[in-house]
Design brief:
By secondary structure, the protein is α+β, with helices and mostly antiparallel strands. It is 51% helix and 15% strand.
Length: 493
């Protein structure tokens, strides 16, 4: 069977549909022809028996009441024979070869049977009426070949008709398959056109709510996701190239100047120090790009559901550890970094204020956020705040739990950001203008303005981490002054 099926795989889908449906129709037609032939044979045989009984009944009825009957010959080419109790043929319209077989029929039981005489078959009805003269035998016969001819002719007619129906069915299957696959061909042509078509081109969706429409919608959704990923990667490459170009140009200029000041140790050391700062910024930018790329790749690979679940207290411990790391940076600017942990309501009363601890409830909430993700959130948000604040400022990191989500909130008392920056704050390579951070003075040696310390990717990483955990990230200016960044992560059910 597999040997016959394997070549079919090389044919087109339309051909396979046509061949398969035609083969099934052929099997059905053959079965119908056989069933109808059997039914016709049964009907013809029953009709013949009825006719034979009708041929024999008048003679049987006469013999049952008359011991010395005077028979009149049958009409309409009826084949009837009457044999006396002594074995004499009293009446016969049978062919001679059938008359020669009547002797054997006088001893057979009454009923219908088929006899073979000289290569010809006859269907006969035998009756044995009894009267005073004894046991008589009445035989009525018909040539069975006539039945066979009728059946064969009918079978031939059915076969020819079935073949015509099969051919018509095959043509209809081909036409229907062509019509059914026409939307697929349109989708294929549109897919070929996508390589040169506008980026927003989509596969056509038919008006019918069928499987092809569902396939088209699924493919369109896939193309949209792929297009978004491609646009995001293209934009990322473009933005990264733009961001890398300026520090590389500055670094090249500083190295050129350093080569000119090889005789001045102090000037050479200053150039090297500035070059090291730019290299450090480039390194931070590369690390941020790598981190963001890994997070987004994990999202595209569908690893979100496989992410380890962390309890509220585990993430609270990581908040405290991350705050300690931020404090090391903040100490150079006399900036105070505090944290506040607010456990679920079912937990014991938590401590608050700077360095407050966390309690543990009977059934702690769990989140699709690991310790590394929480560290990235706290470090990026609080680190940005420390970088933007003037000396003596303050930052408060709060990690609280509600029945629906865990909330990380970082608030500072700095100048805030322009309202125009809020909608794009989490986009890549976006930075607030001098309203949030004063612009550095030009480098007296090169005349160029060095880049701000941030890469413009910190908040983009924050949003990526939050969305990977199924949450959201938002930012707003506080009325009393400062900036508030909030990340909400839903409880894992």
């Amino acid at each position: 069977m597999l040997r016959f099926i394997r070549p079919l795989r090389l044919l087109s889908l339309r051909s396979r549909i046509t061949i398969g449906s035609t083969a099934i129709a052929a099997v059905v037609i053959v079965l119908l022809v056989l069933v109808m032939r059997f039914q016709v044979v049964s009907v013809v045989a029953s009709a013949t028996r009825t006719l034979l009984d009708a041929d024999a009944d008048p003679y049987v009825a006469t013999l049952e009441v008359d011991s010395d009957p005077d028979f009149s010959p049958p009409g309409n080419l009826q084949l009837v024979a009457v044999v006396s109790p002594k074995g004499d043929i009293v009446l016969s319209t049978m062919p001679t070869r059938v008359e020669n077989a009547l002797g054997s029929l006088t001893t057979t039981a009454a009923g219908t049977s088929v006899i073979d005489v000289s290569g010809s078959q006859y269907r006969v009805v035998v009756e044995h009426p009894v009267n005073q003269a004894g046991r008589w035998t009445v035989v009525a016969a018909r040539n069975a070949q006539a039945e066979a001819i009728v059946v064969d002719d009918l079978t031939t007619t059915l076969s020819v008709t079935g073949l015509a129906i099969l051919v018509a069915f095959g043509v209809a299957s081909w036409i229907l398959a062509t019509a059914a696959l026409r939307p697929v061909n349109r989708m294929r042509r549109e897919a070929e056109r996508l390589s040169v078509a506008p980026e927003r081109a989509e596969l056509p969706v038919g008006p019918a709510q069928d499987e092809l429409a569902s396939l088209a919608m699924t493919l369109n959704a896939f193309l949209a996701r792929t297009r978004q990923a491609t646009e995001r990667e293209r934009q990322m490459v473009s933005d990264a190239s733009h961001e890398l170009r300026t520090p590389l140009a500055i670094l090249t200029t500083q190295l050129d100047l350093a080569s000119l000041d090889t005789g001045d140790a102090a000037a050479l050391a200053e150039h090297i120090e500035r070059a090291k700062n730019n290299v450090a910024r480039l390194s931070r930018l590369a690390n941020d790009l790598l981190t963001l790329s890994r997070i987004e790749e994990s999202e595209r690979a569908g690893d979100t559901d496989q992410q380890a679940l962390s309890t509220w207290s585990d993430l609270g411990d990581e908040v405290m550890a991350a705050v300690d790391r931020v404090r090391l940076i903040a100490s150079t600017k006399d900036i105070t970094v505090d944290f506040d942990l607010e456990p679920p309501a079912a937990s014991p009363t938590p401590g608050s204020g700077s360095g407050s601890g966390s309690g543990s409830g009977a059934a702690e909430a769990r989140y699709r956020l690991d310790a590394g993700g929480m560290a990235q959130l706290v470090t990026n948000i609080a680190g940005n705040a420390v970088s933007a604040l003037p000396r003596g400022g303050g930052v408060l990191v709060t990690w609280r739990s509600t029945p629906e989500f865990g909330e990380l909130q970082v608030t500072d008392d700095g100048p805030g950001v322009p309202e125009s920056f809020v909608p794009v704050a989490f986009d890549r390579f976006t930075r607030p203008d001098e309203a949030r951070k004063s612009r550095p003075a030009p480098d007296p040696a090169t005349g160029t303005i060095p880049l701000p310390g941030g890469s413009g990717l910190g908040l983009a990483i924050v949003r990526a981490v939050a969305e990977r955990a199924g949450g959201t990230a938002s930012l707003r200016n506080v009325r009393s002054g400062g900036l508030e960044v909030t990340v909400r992560v839903p409880v894992a059910r």
